[in-house]
Specification:
homodimer, alpha/beta, Arc Repressor Mutant, subunit A, Aspartate Aminotransferase, domain 1, Aspartate Aminotransferase, domain 2, 3 domains, nine-stranded mixed β-sheet, four-stranded antiparallel β-sheet, 16 helices, HTH gntR-type domain-containing protein (chains A, B), WH_DNA-bd_sf (chains A, B), PyrdxlP-dep_Trfase_small (chains A, B)
């Protein structure tokens, strides 16, 4: 796996062989973090002593020391006086396995929109504790630095560009995005890149490019609710593929469905899936691609959380295995850099030209100044430095929420521990009705995203998605306590 | 008709009775301009002497003087030494009547997209004389002043707003747009307003809100080619209603079609129609509304050129007659203020909430910084002053192109003379094939928009749309001469 390299100092034609800059102790810390995430090292358990670890893993004691400091800083372990390091407290139950799909070949007309809008509409009060929000805190983003990039880029933007950049997009932005792909190991022809109004437009365009009303589309269960809304709007039928909370979609169910159903496209999040946070392994991503390649079914890869991985190892997209342009890889700056700017893209593979034409017929172009500002920031703003800080903050806040869940939620509650992003998926005891919980919590000024809005078949009735993208404070802690009380009363 | 009032100095709660600020001589100039446009006063003809006009129209000689100075400044008349004022030379043929529609009840599957894209794709060379362009020169817009508004608005924008403004839109921008409606006589409830990625997204959302694939939609013939592309994309069938080049759509044909066909929506440009430049009279707009109201068929009113009227009298939209929310009025800042910013809107009437939800499912929001910048400009930038200058420039350039057409095009050529905007519609002699003309002109570095891209049934084969939104210079003149030579050779 390639380390995250800063693209800021790359020459216009960077060397093809890129140096692996990840340090020894960072690698070792990532390995220990993975043991914690997967539950091999449980909450409250002692981590191996420095001497023991040094011997067992064949690394120097100073590497172990540095790794443990880093893990403490990341909120994963904590020191106890004279006793060494322990895994920080968090919800103690093991992670849930994916709910098995009772009818894998079942297809569903989607009609979840009304429910989603009624939930979203109730989140508007800014005084609500925003556990139900889809966005992290805007204070995590370098908005003032972006504003400087905006001012600078508008000073040098030629009047001609405000019109010319509408069709193809800002050329500097296109180059910067392609550079970031290259650094992560994907050699992307610039012609594949279509700049869009955020990833949401990209996903819509992709889906319309490869489907007709009535077609079957494979999606995840649970899935991002907007996926369900878009399918509903385009009169597409959903084939729900169960997602394992750590390992991602169930490939066997997908293989069976592809063999028996005329599926026209797949829409998956292969890394940091929303809402579960699951990331597929590289081997599994490769196998997914080979399966789709065999059936010649295109993949719409929704990768909007790509930059929010914790630690140092960026997940590779399925797109990196794409040999024949079958994968449409959708990204965005909305979650990583510039919320509200509405700039995203799709690396559209063999469908790029169709996608681009469709965009010209629907919105023409994302805002030219917003594109120029982001292009300037990517060149001069310190994007990778910002990202490191952002990832660190989100991981710290995840630890805080997990610890709080352990303190306040009933013991049978099960919680995911994703390796990135800002969502936890919580499975409450079976008798909990999360739509009712949503209403009761909202009356107390606390929002959450109830499980059924993530399913075309209204499953996950005892689940909820909680957002830890906001600063963890006294109000967050009290809100978790209140949620715990409501759930216990149920 | 209400005069254009400056909204810059209006208090937060402006008085309900607005003063008519249009001066006597401006009104008189507008009346003479109308006589010239409609051909009552022909090219080269002497306009009435000051004494004669003063007596005939019951205005003071000084009013006539001032009006004639203004008309000269607007490029409509010119003084000849010791002889008085004459109508400036332009294409001498009378305006064409609308081509009669041979089968008014005929419906058409649309498949014009490929042709449009092949035409548009060939316009990219910046060295081409841009008669085929859809945009006026970007130098006509206050881009530097807008950049200042962008910098200022980003300084004061709260981080919270980058997320909150995505759903409803920038509140200042919404208020400013509603104010401008109010000044033009439309009292618009703020809830009706949906901010979009330019008018193109607004039009798409409106159409999807009131139609299903297979439905019939009444459109103009000729129509803006994007209208045809959108219908094609959404699998809608076109009912083409002929447009008279001065008076707008043929209401009788529309009435017949509504009586006999299950038309689900109309998509019309009631003012400065693209490509003909036709503007319907107020009486006709009212009659159109009454007809649609009677059939309860919604109107999607595409009014993107609303601010580009010449003279002093803004055309009223059909929306101003709307009593029951049947009209979706789509506007944009792309043609009047901020090309490339991609900020438009729709006053959605009874469909506003559906439109808003559909937007959340497709692009979520236009760029928040772009919205904030335009809101700041509308409050502090001097929008009405800019618009007066812009209208004046476009009118001058129209006169220049008309005069050039008179010099270089064959005598049988017929040309429109719209009362605003930046397009002329040219009807060449019947044997001219405008697609072939397009190719031959392009080889000479001249673009134009050939007639067939404006028709679902590939009509208007001897017509073309010419853009006069760019500074008129020696190259423009030579290009017209070249077009004239090619056409004559045909």
């Amino acid at each position: 796996m390639t380390a995250p390299l800063s693209v800021e100092y790359l020459p216009a034609h960077p060397p093809v062989v890129l140096q692996d800059k990840m340090k020894r102790y960072e690698k070792f810390a990532d390995e220990i973090a993975e043991l914690i995430r997967t539950g091999v090292l449980a909450a409250g358990e002692k981590v191996p002593s420095v001497r023991h670890a040094s011997r067992t893993y064949g690394v120097s004691p100073s590497t172990v020391f540095q790794a443990y400091y880093l893990l403490e800083d990341r909120g994963l372990i904590q020191a106890r006086a004279r006793s060494g390091y322990f895994v920080r407290e968090h919800a103690k139950q093991p992670l849930p396995d994916a709910q098995s799909n009772p009818r894998p070949a079942h297809t569903t007309d989607v009609d979840v929109s009304e429910l989603v809008f009624s939930v979203l509409g109730s989140l508007k009060d800014p005084n609500t504790v925003p556990f139900g929000s889809a966005f992290p805190s805007p204070h995590l983003y370098p908005l003032a630095r972006l504003a400087r990039s905006m001012a600078q880029s508008l000073r040098v933007l030629s009047p001609h560009a405000v019109i010319a950049d509408m069709t193809a997009g800002n050329p500097d932005l296109r180059r910067q995005i392609a550079l970031r792909y290259m650094v992560s190991g994907v050699m992307l022809p610039l012609e594949e890149l279509v700049i869009t109004n955020g990833a949401m437009e990209a996903l819509n365009l992709c889906l319309q490019t490869v489907t007709q009303p009535g077609d079957l589309v494979a999606i995840e269960a649970p899935a991002f609710y907007a996926t369900l809304q878009v399918l509903e709007r385009l009169k597409l039928k959903a084939v729900e593929i169960p997602v394992h909370p750590r390992e991602g979609i169930d490939l066997q169910t997908l293989a069976d469905s592809l063999a028996h159903l005329p599926i026209k496209a797949c829409w998956f999040m292969s890394s940091l899936q929303n809402p579960l946070g699951a990331s597929m392994s590289e081997e599994k991503k490769r196998a997914l691609y080979e399966l789709l390649q065999q059936h010649q079914v295109p993949l719409i890869e929704d990768d909007v959380y790509a930059e929010l991985y914790y630690g140092t190892q960026p997940p590779k997209p399925v797109k990196s295995f794409d040999r024949d342009g079958l994968v449409m890889h959708c990204g965005s700056f909305s979650k990583s850099l510039a919320p509200g700017y509405r700039v995203g893209w799709v690396a559209g593979g063999r469908y790029a030209e169709k996608i681009s034409r469709l965009k010209l017929m629907t919105t023409i172009s994302p805002s030219v100044p917003a594109q120029a500002a982001i292009a300037d920031y990517l060149q001069h703003g310190g994007y990778d430095r910002h990202l490191r800080k952002l990832r660190h903050t989100l991981e710290m806040q995840q630890s805080a929420m997990l610890a709080s869940a352990a303190r306040h939620f009933p013991a049978q509650t099960r919680v995911t521990r994703p390796s990135g992003g800002y969502f936890l998926w919580v499975e409450f005891p079976e008798q909990v009705d999360s739509l009712q919980l949503f209403q009761l919590a909202l009356a107390q000024g606390i929002s959450l995203a109830p499980g059924p809005i993530f399913s075309a078949t209204r499953r996950f009735g005892n689940c909820a998605r909680l957002n830890h993208g906001h600063p963890w404070d006294e109000a967050s802690e009290r809100a978790m306590e209140m949620l715990g009380r409501i759930v216990t009363a149920m």
